[in-house]
């Protein structure tokens, strides 16, 4: 159990640096029985220090990430100024989150957060120093037409990103902004139907954890057509098939981890944002600017990506630590 005073310092980073909570605002803090309630308490205390009003809502754990929550939860989200999502399964890609953002709510979706997340690691990043780096990478992706991702494990995937805008996830300080902070990443939704090649996932998968052996995915015309790699590959295949929707197989997002304080631990909030990793998401990408409204969004993380945009290297293994 982490020291509460240390957790409060992390809560202040969330309330101050990452969301800029203001006096008189209403802050909705979502949690569930699989998360430590002390996390919600620490952030609530930091919110009170800012002169805002915290409301903690305990909700049930749903089996699949980004499943829609009950109407009472959606209404509370829509009425809040700031939302902290300290949940076991993400709500970032739900209609409820998008509706709240359209009303101006700022949101931190810290899926899988543990007490230690508030004490060290991701939370210790110099967010203001890293913001220009995040912006530069996002701008280069937004201006690009074609992306290629390779890795030493065997990934070789291409897709069109022409006309798509990259998303900068570092904080939610502005009206309607949402991010996975304290993770730091840049991501972009490839054009539907254009991703092709091979993806080898050797770090972790949301809802599954650290890889015991790599999962090899074959991608054709924007969708995964084959899962190879042992019991975890079979589990991933079943998780996708269980949604009974072909849109769940789509390559929805290409992401770059940029938090230099992160480590791959099996906790998706940290894994996908760790500097030196990349990730691909399958399923829903409407929250990222895509057009595939699948009933699931699953992040798949891999090590040491080389990412090229229009033939020019954007990110490569061995780059200086940010």
Describe the protein's architecture and organization:
Helix content is 24%, strand content 28%. The protein has seven helices and 19 strands. The strands form three sheets. A seven-stranded antiparallel sheet has the order 14-13-10-6-5-18-19, covered by helices on one side. Helix 1 (4-18) crosses helix 2 (37-49). The chain is globular.
Structure summary:
24% of the residues lie in helices and 28% in strands. The chain is of the alpha+beta class and 322 residues long. The protein folds into two domains: 4-119, 3-Layer(aba) Sandwich (Rossmann fold); 125-315, no CATH class.
How are the elements arranged and paired?
Blueprint: H1 4-18, E1 26-31, H2 37-49, E2 53-58, H3 71-79, E3 82-86, H4 95-102, E4 106-109, H5 127-143, E5 146-150, E6 156-160, E7 167-169, E8 178-179, E9 185-188, E10 196-201, E11 204-205, E12 209-210, E13 215-220, E14 223-228, H6 231-241, E15 251-257, H7 268-271, E16 277-283, E17 297-303, E18 306-309, E19 312-315
Parallel strand pairs: 1-2, 1-3, 3-4, 4-8
Antiparallel strand pairs: 5-6, 5-18, 6-10, 7-9, 9-15, 10-13, 11-12, 11-17, 13-14, 15-16, 16-17, 18-19
Spatial strand sequence of the major β-sheet:
14-13-10-6-5-18-19
Give the CA-based shape.
globular
Poorly predicted sequence stretches spanning 5 or more consecutive residues? none
End-to-end separation: 30 Å
Percent range of helical residues = 10-25%
Q: What is the number of strand segments? A: 19
Biggest β-sheet description: 7 strands, antiparallel
What portion of residues belong to β-strands? 25-35%
Discrete helix count: 7
Secondary-structure element order, N to C: HEHEHEHEHEEEEEEEEEEHEHEEEE
Structural class: alpha+beta
Q: Roughly how many Å is the radius of gyration?
A: 18 Å
**Mean pLDDT reading:** 95
How many domain regions? 2
